Each structure stands twice: as C-alpha cells, then as structure tokens.
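Re: that chain you flagged

S.,

Sorry for the slow reply, it's been a week of failed gels. I finally had a moment to sit down with the sequence you sent. For the record, here it is as I used it:
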Amino acid sequence: MEKKTLCRICTAHCPIVVEVDETGRPISARGDKDNPHSEGFFCLKGKHFPDLHTSPTRLRHSLARNGSGALEALAAEDAMDAVATRIQAIIDEHGTQAVAVYAGTLFYQLPQTAAVATAWMNALKLHLRFGSGTIDQPGKQIAAAAHGQWLAGSHVFDECETWMLVGTNPLVAMSGGIAHANPARRLERARARGLQLVVIDPRRSETAKRAALHIQPRPGTDPAVLAGIIREVIAQDLVDEDFLRANVDGFETLRAEVDPFTPARVATRAGIEAHQIIRAAQIFGSARKGTATAGTGANMSGWSNISEYLVLCLNAICGRYRRAGDRVANPGVLTTRRAFKAQPIAPYPVAGRGEPLRSRPDLMPAVCGLPTSGLADEILLEGEGQIKALITIGGNPMRAWPDPKKTRAALEALELHVCVDPRLTDTAQLADFVLAPKLPLETPGCSLSTENLSSISPAFGYSECYGQYAPPIAQCPPDSDLREDWEFFYGLAQRMGLDLTIAAGVFPIPGVDTPTAALDMQNKPSSEEILDLLTMDSRIPLERLRNDPNKVLFDDEGSVTVEDRDADNDARLDVGSALLFEELRDFAAGDRFDRPGFDYRMISRRMANTFNSVGTEIEALTRRYGTNPAFMHPDDLAREGFVRGDLIRLASPHAEVEAVVWPDKDLRPGLVSICHCWGGDPEKPDDVRKVGVNTGLLISVEEDCGRFSGIPLMSALPVKVARI
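Prediction finished late last night. Pasting the structure tokens below so you have them in one place:
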C-alpha cells in the first residue's frame, strides 16, 4: 500500500509516497508527482528514508549503563524514572546551572519535540541551552540585531529578477537560498524568465554553474567582496534613495566604511578579477526585485558577523523589501497569523544577555545563543557552576562539534549524559542513558518547521503558500518499546512535578505575540493535540490539511498585501553599526588566519546524499565516494604527486588527520574541500576509508573564535598536505 507523507531527513521536508507492507513496515519511497509544490522532486536521501526506520542498527529499546559499564536495554518508563531522579538529584545538590541541554539540527525539524522540550527547559529555568546554530550560521542573528528587521519581509525567489548567494549551495543542501521544494527546477524556470543569479563561492558548485556571474574568491574573503559590491552599488548610483530616506540610518557611515574596498583592492585581497565586482553591483543593483543571502560557507570562514551584516546592508540600500500595497507571496499556512507592515523593527542588543561562560569570559551571551564551542570546556572546568549533566537532542556532538577529542573528554567527565537518539551514534555510545524514540514515519508531522524558517533569514522557508500534514503511516518495529521524542520530556516533567506551557511555532516570528497554551499534566495529550497547539491561530487551520490531504497550496484563500506603516512607528534600520564595522576594519588589517607553512585552506562542503551525520551508515547513500574524501584541484594533485584514492596526511596548526584524496576540477586551486560530520571515535582509530575523516579534529575551540558566537574557524582553515 502506498501512503503520502513528508521526508524529514533535512529541512526540505519533500513530499514523498511510501510503500508500506501489510505489517506496517515501510519498504520504499518515491517523490509525490501529484504534489503541485514539489512536482515529484525528492533526492536519494528521501528514497532511502524508509531504510532509517528498518535498519538493523536502529534502537528498539532505550538503554542504560549498568554497573559493569555496558549499555543494556531498559523499559522506556523505567528509563524516564531513572533519568528524572538523577537530574533532580543533581539540581538539588548543585542547582540548575549544573544542567545543560544541546539541541542539534534535527531538534528543530520535529516541532512537537522542540516545543515540549523547550517547555521542560523553561519550567526548570535552565539557562544553559546550547544549539547547533552557533557552529553553523550564527552571524544571521547577530547581524539582524545590529541591523533591525523589516516586518513586511523580503522578496521571495519566485518573484525576483536577481538573486545573490554567498557561500551556499542550495541545489545540494536543499536549503539556504532557493525555495526548498525542487530548487533546481525553480532555478531553471527563474533563469528562463530572465533572473540573473550571482554566486560567490570558492568552488564552482552545482549552483554556481547556473549563475550569470560566479565570483570565485579566496575562502574567508567574503567581507571584501561584499564591501566592494556595496561600494560599487553606491558609486553606480543604484541605491534606493526613497527607501533609505524613509527607513534607514547610517548610510554615510556605511559609505565611509566600504570606501577603501575598491574593485582593484578587492581583486588583490580575494584573488579575483576587479570587473567582477563592478558587474555584480550592476546585476544586483539594477534589478527591481531581488535578495542576497549567505550560508554556512560565509559563516564558518572566520567573519560570520560582518559577512551577514554586509548582506543585510546590501539588501537595505537596494530596497530589497516588500512595500505597502505589495502582494505577500506567502502570508503563511501553519505559522501564527500576522500582519505584514511596511515598517522596521529597530535594532536591538547583540550581547549582554546574561553572564558569560566560566570557561570563556571573553564571550558574553549574545542573541545567537550560548557558544557551543565553549560547552566542552564548561563541562571540564571544575568548581562552582560546573556542568554535571547534559541532555543531547537531535544531534551528534562527537561528529558535529569542533575538537572531538576535547568533546569526548567532556562527555566522559559528566555525572549524567542523556541522549535522545534512534541510533547508537558515536555520542550515544558515551551516554549513561539513550532514550530511543519513534521515527517520523511512525508519528504525525507537518511542514511547520520549514515554513517557520522564514523567521530566521531572507530566502529561507517557502516562497509560495504551501502547507502539508503528514499522518503516521508506519508501525514501530515488532517487540520495540519506543516513545516520540517529546514524550520523554513530558514524562520527565510529570515525574519532576513540573507544569508545561508550550508556544506555537518553532522559531519566534518578529513582531508577533506568540500564542501559548498550558498542557494537561495529568492526562497526557496525543501527538496530534500537540500539533494543534503548535499551529493555534494559524492562517489555515491544521484540521483542514488533515481533512483534505491533496490540497497543499492555499493561494486561493485570498490575497494578502503589505499594510502601511503604523502612525506611531518611527523605527529605522541601521546600516552603520559601529559594533560590526569594528570587524570590517579588523578584516581589512590583514589575513589574521594566515599561518606560514600551511599553504592550503580547508573549506567545508555539502554532499548530496547525507545530511550531517545522518545517512553515513547507509551503503546506498555513500556508494559514490565511500566516505567524505578530501577534494583537491587536479593541478594541486599533480603538484603534490597524489592520485585519486591516495591516503594523505592533512595537518592544521591544531592537529593532523588522514584522509582519502579525490580530484575536483571545480575547486579553486589551493583548497582542500571536505564534508563535515564524518569519522569515528578519535580514541578508537579506524580505517579512514571505512569511516571517513572527522574534520573537527583539525579545528581548535581556543583560537580564532568568532566574536559573540564563539564559532571557531571551521572553513578557510590553514592546512598542509603530505603523502602517507
């Protein structure tokens, strides 16, 4: 029997059709060709989504570490009893500052989990909440705070004449710049109607190959390229004077700060042609509608905050926002109902959001969240305030965090480590308890998480009025004892005598009062009831999506237009932040990351068939390359005497690893490009050809860390190579 649902491996949440046998076991999957939003698109990860549910490595029961140190099966209810008792004992002795939570990327893709787990943290008043955002794209929140936000939203991809992508490859990542559903087809249609795409990326990526202009700079030089483009937009008189006059402060400061970045100087610093800066300004500045956005490449390369801020400044001076009377392409489906107004939210504080970490007094808690790069040190640093317990949800720190050796030492030092995970990952193997959850095909879900991404950044979320409900379509494995992820946190709250209040949505929407609701702590709600609460006061009631699963587009629900500015609103956006321009002057002073003798730069990349550490154990998804090779330009391979498949030694100033080398003619010479989130336990070395290389071993969490977020230098990292 075939059943329609959503793939939930990555943020794209593609509609798929899954074949389920008579026992409720998912067998295969294909794209939903009848879905007008995706038009049948899905990727190889989606094809093998059922394999994650039926894999022999999947946990069927929760686990607890016994007296001899081994993990053994434990009933889910007993596991919650034990975990609640242990957490409460630590709080009673050390206070809530001894308990921390790490939420990985998958945490936000399961809205019920994000809501109930957050409610549990709120009820306990836990302030040590760490997430993947501060080792991913933390500059977005920092830049938005310094710049302010526009309540009418930015232009969306499907209506634009130009588009600029900085350090992101949405045709592979399926997110981060082009609408999530079927991005390649959307891009081809946009190009056919005349859209001019500008891509800034040191690799001629799958997306860059389709660009009208591809600028291929040295990694880590995005601030120079962006400042140069802004300077040229101003010089070519392509600024939206009306928008600036009515809504923007700091323009003269911006003009002065970018003035040194002439095309010639940018060309020298970034290793590009000067005319490319002039051409990029013409393409982007002369269009009527368009948006610029940045991704992980720009954020991980050492200048996250200023790179993201310059992107916002470029959008602002070109007026890349909807105005009063404009049609809103996607007014929302399951997100909280709201008005779209042609007015700003004024800038708000970047930092000063609590006490700094004991181990990192240089990092004041900022709008992007606590610095995950400091979490291991915070666990290891003894004394008052030491973290004694960690709960990990939706992430795999041993693969994802920089410096996995320090990560391992920290996880082993904990009095209590609890993982909510369906697999015995490298991280889960070090836990005291592994709470085994159901997987998405066994639970109800919807498109809320991806729709809500529009709150994070321009060009995120859906570009059309799309929403979809996904009923549970598969049965849990026979003889299993599983709960939905959120049920563990509800169960802990019951045992700890806590009242839970959940908020609608997944991410707060700027300018909107988020609806909340108290949960019944005596009679556990169903997962469907939690979804109803998460979508309360939505423009389209979730019940309509349940009752009519074939209707996923809601453009016929009446158009929504941008309202005029409130009479009493005098807020303005700011393109002259003194705080962030300190970073641009620091950047202009020279390459602070240069290290003599380290002649290459390692950059991050996405691989199409895996999502972070998910899928790396499925042979069908890793067949092409085996693991995560170290890609190099063929000329570099020839100069070093390497051939495809050779084992090489890759060294940073921090450490060295082995890797398998592979040619990539689309790379800029002088680079080594590797996908993150592979490799095994660094204390148990295995054949790199089997498990891949953990690039986190090369990254220091003590040097070259970003301001506010503490994001380490994770891309554009100086390295040297040698034959083994």
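What I noticed first: The chain has four domains: 1-54, 62-136+355-435, 154-321+572-585, 593-723.

Talk soon,
D.
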